[in-house]
């Protein structure tokens, strides 16, 4: 049994496996399939200051080794989260992390401040990279100035571990990563979905209600891995890697590329117990390769 | 209800129509409790062009033989893969999922079960359960043509079966909502599953006649668990997940123009 614990800023993870926002609900939806406290963290759905209905149906289309979605941050708002959902999840014995989104630096900061007050939420993941909303979201994540402005506003009002989730839909992701590091982010997570599109040739129409959506799943893994490797070389804060991770082998690739922890997203839809299997698979690989600790493989590339 | 991921074994795959197969699955353990209107997410292995699981209605639970029956329309790569399964093959299923039909509270409640096309699938198990509880369900099944009416002998085991066909080759000619049984008998509840235009017509009828009515929707899904929020339907409570809050909804909750 190798040591699997890792640190992201002040955050202690019992192992490097977390579940990605928007793919694991609030964790409770998966409690029948696996012990929720068996993984290092659960990043719950994107939460905004005010409730959002999200985009119209259809919001999803299957693609080769992946899927496109344009959910558009449907959620009941941060106050509903604090009042109704937090009491149900606060006693789950792992890091319950809230993904925070917004449409201006001020409402990102206000939303983060309300979550700062919740004792059992040790970190937030700041979503400056959602490709499916008109206002805010990715608009902030594609320029250094935009990304910095949100992180600066949030950092002033949020005092726990701040992870910033980056968009791959940029010319140079390392510049954005450096910009958020400079404003006090404790870690970066990447990648959010890659913007994509699908067309129904018989109906001569796009297959998503807002035409475009975010691509996830194994199809994006090589792109995500390359970006994690680039960013890990460019910043001094921990990197959390995600994008198409579906197996322990995939996860180990990300760790070797420089990720301190990883998130499992779309793979949860194919196997609702995949995150525990990935944890066990990482452990087995370390054992069989004579490694005492997961630290021995992080960033070896 | 507790959900499971199970590797079920194929008992048989029967081609009952050029576009439909009946797949019977079993397990060495007793199958978990499943309710009429719930569904399973079937993992499609070995198909290069599919990725997600396929949500399939529970057609029937044969409790004597510990079997789960799926009635599958072969409409794409995933369902064609399912049709190519053989006896003894293993199929990975997440089940039971979703919120099923409301069951009768009293045996004298008169249930009309209206289905069209492959949408008849969940109505067999629903009708069987109503019958088992002492009720007498009536089935009204519609199809394009006589050959497209599926599993009629099975439906007849549990209640009176009326049919309509668009070409008049069986039963009354036309659509289900035009069938004469609707003017002859008064039903207290309608449960419907089928193409959306059919369900909307049924809902319109139920609304006009002030009959309690539930419909089963089949919006495109990814997770099947209420996590991804992809399969949403607009309702009086905002966008709800068809996979978790449905697939069965009372028509009063939907924002359909009736």
TrEMBL record, chain A:
SUPFAM superfamilies: FMN-linked oxidoreductases. FMN binds at residues 21, 45-46, 99, 127, 165, 191, 217, 243-244, 265-266. It is found in: Cytoplasm. HAMAP family: DHO_dh_type1 (MF_00224). It comes from the Bacteria. PANTHER family: DIHYDROOROTATE DEHYDROGENASE (FUMARATE), DIHYDROOROTATE DEHYDROGENASE (QUINONE), MITOCHONDRIAL-RELATED. Binds 1 FMN per subunit. Substrate binds at residues 45, 69-73, 127, 192-193. It comes from Prevotella aff. ruminicola Tc2-24. Catalyzes the conversion of dihydroorotate to orotate. The active site is at residue 130. InterPro entries: Aldolase_TIM, DHO_dehydrogenase, DHOD_1B, Dihydroorotate_DH_1, Dihydroorotate_DH_1_2, Dihydroorotate_DH_cat, Dihydroorotate_DH_CS, Dihydroorotate_DH_I. It catalyses: (S)-dihydroorotate + A = orotate + AH2. One of its GO terms (cellular component) is cytoplasm. Its EC number is 1.3.-.-. GO terms for biological process: 'de novo' pyrimidine nucleobase biosynthetic process; 'de novo' UMP biosynthetic process. This is Dihydroorotate dehydrogenase. Its main location: cytoplasm. One of its GO terms (molecular function) is dihydroorotate dehydrogenase activity. Residues 4-285 form the Dihydroorotate dehydrogenase catalytic domain. Its cofactor is FMN. Keywords: Cytoplasm, Flavoprotein, FMN, Oxidoreductase, Pyrimidine biosynthesis. Belongs to the dihydroorotate dehydrogenase family. Type 1 subfamily.
């Amino acid at each position: 049994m190798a040591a699997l614990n890792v640190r992201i800023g002040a955050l202690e993870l019992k192992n490097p496996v977390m579940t990605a926002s928007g793919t694991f609900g609030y964790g409770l939806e998966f409690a029948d399939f696996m012990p929720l406290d068996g993984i290092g963290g659960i990043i719950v759905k994107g939460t905004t200051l005010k409730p959002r209905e999200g985009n119209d149906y259809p919001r999803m289309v299957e693609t080769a080794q992946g899927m496109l979605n344009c959910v558009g941050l449907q959620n009941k708002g941060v106050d509903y989260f604090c009042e109704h959902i937090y009491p149900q999840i606060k006693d789950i014995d792992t890091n319950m992390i809230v993904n925070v989104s917004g449409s201006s630096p001020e409402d990102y900061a206000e939303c983060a401040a309300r979550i700062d007050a919740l004792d059992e939420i040790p970190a937030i993941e700041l979503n400056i990279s959602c490709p499916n909303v008109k206002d805010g979201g990715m608009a902030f994540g594609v320029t250094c100035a935009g990304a910095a402005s949100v992180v600066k506003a949030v950092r002033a009002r949020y005092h726990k571990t701040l992870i910033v989730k980056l968009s791959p839909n940029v010319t140079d992701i390392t510049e954005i990563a450096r910009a958020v590091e400079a404003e006090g982010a404790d870690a970066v997570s990447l990648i959010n979905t890659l913007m994509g599109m699908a067309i129904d040739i018989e109906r001569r129409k796009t297959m998503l209600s807002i035409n475009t959506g975010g691509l996830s799943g194994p199809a994006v893994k090589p792109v995500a891995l390359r970006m994690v490797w680039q960013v890990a070389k460019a910043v001094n804060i921990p990197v959390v890697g995600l994008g198409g991770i579906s197996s322990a082998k995939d996860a180990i690739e990300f760790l070797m590329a420089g990720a301190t922890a990883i998130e499992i997203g779309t793979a949860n839809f194919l196997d609702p117990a995949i995150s525990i299997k990935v944890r066990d698979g990482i452990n087995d690989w370390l054992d069989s390769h004579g490694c005492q600790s997961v630290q021995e493989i992080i960033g070896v590339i | 209800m507790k959900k499971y991921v199970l590797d079920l074994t194929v008992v048989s795959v029967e081609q009952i129509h050029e576009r439909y197969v009946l797949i019977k699955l079993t397990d060495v353990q007793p199958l978990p409790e499943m309710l009429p209107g719930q569904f399973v997410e079937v993992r499609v292995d070995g198909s290069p062009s599919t990725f997600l699981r396929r949500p399939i209605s529970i057609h029937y639970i044969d409790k004597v033989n510990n079997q789960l029956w799926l009635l599958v329309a072969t409409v794409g790569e995933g369902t064609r893969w399912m049709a190519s399964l053989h006896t003894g093959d293993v199929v990975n299923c997440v089940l039971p999922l979703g919120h099923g039909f409301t069951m009768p509270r009293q045996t004298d409640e008169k249930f009309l079960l209206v289905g069209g096309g492959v949408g008849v699938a969940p109505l067999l198990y629903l009708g069987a359960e109503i019958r088992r509880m002492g009720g007498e369900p009536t089935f009204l099944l519609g199809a394009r043509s006589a050959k497209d009416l599926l599993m009629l002998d099975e439906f007849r085991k549990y209640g009176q079966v009326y049919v309509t066909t668009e070409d008049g080759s069986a039963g009354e000619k036309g659509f289900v909502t035009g069938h004469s049984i609707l003017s002859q008998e008064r039903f207290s509840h309608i449960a419907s599953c089928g193409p959306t235009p059919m369900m909307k017509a049924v809902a319109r009828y139920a609304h006009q006649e002030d009959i309690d009515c539930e419909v089963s929707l089949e919006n495109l899904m990814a997770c099947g668990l209420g996590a991804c929020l992809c399969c949403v339907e607009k309702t009086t409570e905002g966008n709800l997940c068809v996979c978790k809050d449905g697939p069965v909804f009372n028509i009063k909750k939907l924002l359909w123009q009736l």
